[in-house]
Automatic annotation (TrEMBL):
This is DUF4440 domain-containing protein. The keyword Signal applies. Coiled coil: none annotated. Residues 1-26 form the signal peptide. Keywords: Signal. It comes from Persicitalea jodogahamensis.
Length: 312
């Protein structure tokens, strides 16, 4: 009996301690409105951020510099460490040298104040879309962004930028290659698949851009009957010219590739793989064994010879 009473007593004591700790924890956890409030200087703080962004996109970097505190710190995607004010301004100068037609659209802001702690002070959050055109190539870029900035004495003390770097990279024609992948092999595969997609799209202009403009360029084909024949460079050009007008490939046809072997060697490369076409009308897929001889011309891989054999 004593043991039963002792166990019950221990359980009761544990339960009371749990309730006490839970109550204490609940008391220590601050509520949102206890630490954050609307800023009394909201309009002025929003103006500081907007004036800074306007100065950047207009190229008035002296004005932009005057809106940064002496100990300004900036963080963003890809930053190895925070930038100070001069580094931030120099980064924008580099961007201005490569871009034109800058503007910001869909701008929204929210000002608030943190009452205490490490982030005590006035803050402004801004959202919008930054537009520009690349001077080289004329590519138009639209970049949604978010910025959170601390404002002190009419200047920005720190700022944190958030945006999708991959979107900009892709629109500018750059690619991200895994470190364990050979860059030439990666680019060759991407090019070969793009060339096939251009063929399926009946896009002769794009398709021919992946071929070397060389007199010995050729396409060796083996048909289902086992007959092999060459399509010469001249014939390839005529075929590609007809592609966009005759449009032989039906919409909805897709392809998959597999079993790639790609061997770059200086400015030449050999590639072999299987390519399967899938048809929207329900026909059985067709798989070819493909090989390509490629040459790097002006830094870009081009097809100079192509072999297609039906897989049996």
């Amino acid at each position: 009996m004593d043991k039963v009473i002792s166990s019950a007593a221990r359980f009761s004591l544990f339960f009371l301690l749990f309730l006490a700790c839970s109550h204490s924890f609940a008391q220590r956890t601050p509520k949102h409105n206890d630490v954050v409030a609307l800023s009394k200087n909201a309009d002025e703080n929003v103006a500081v951020l907007n004036n800074y962004l306007d100065a950047l996109v207009s190229g008035d970097l002296n004005r932009a510099r005057s809106l940064l505190a002496a100990d300004y710190q900036e963080n963003g995607p890809g930053y190895e460490k925070p930038m100070n004010s001069e580094q931030a301004i120099n980064s924008w100068q580099s961007s201005l040298n490569q871009r034109t037609d800058h503007r910001i659209s869909d701008r929204r802001t929210l000002a608030y104040q943190e009452k205490s702690g490490l982030n005590e002070g006035d803050w402004v959050m801004g959202w919008g879309t930054y537009h520009w055109k690349e001077k080289a190539g004329g590519t138009m870029i639209e970049l949604p962004y978010q910025i959170t900035a601390r404002v002190s004495n009419g200047t920005l003390k720190e700022a944190r930028y958030y945006y999708d770097r991959a979107t900009v990279r892709d629109k500018m024609g750059y690619v991200a290659i895994p470190p364990e992948v050979d860059p030439d092999a990666y680019m060759i595969r991407k090019m070969l698949e793009a060339e096939t997609q251009a063929w399926l799209n009946n896009d002769g202009k794009t398709m021919v851009s992946y071929w070397a403009d060389l007199p010995y360029a050729a396409h060796t084909v083996t048909d289902e009957a086992g007959k092999a024949y060459d399509i010469t460079a001249t014939e390839i050009g005529e075929m590609v010219t007809r592609l966009s007008t005759q449009r032989p490939n039906k919409p909805g046809t897709t392809f998959t590739t597999s079993n790639f072997t790609i061997r770059p060697n200086g400015d030449a490369a050999w590639a072999s793989y299987e390519q399967t076409f899938h048809y929207p009308d329900g026909r059985e897929p067709v798989t070819n064994i493909e090989s390509r001889y490629l040459e790097k011309i002006d830094g870009k891989w081009k097809i100079s010879h192509m072999i297609s054999i039906p897989k049996r």
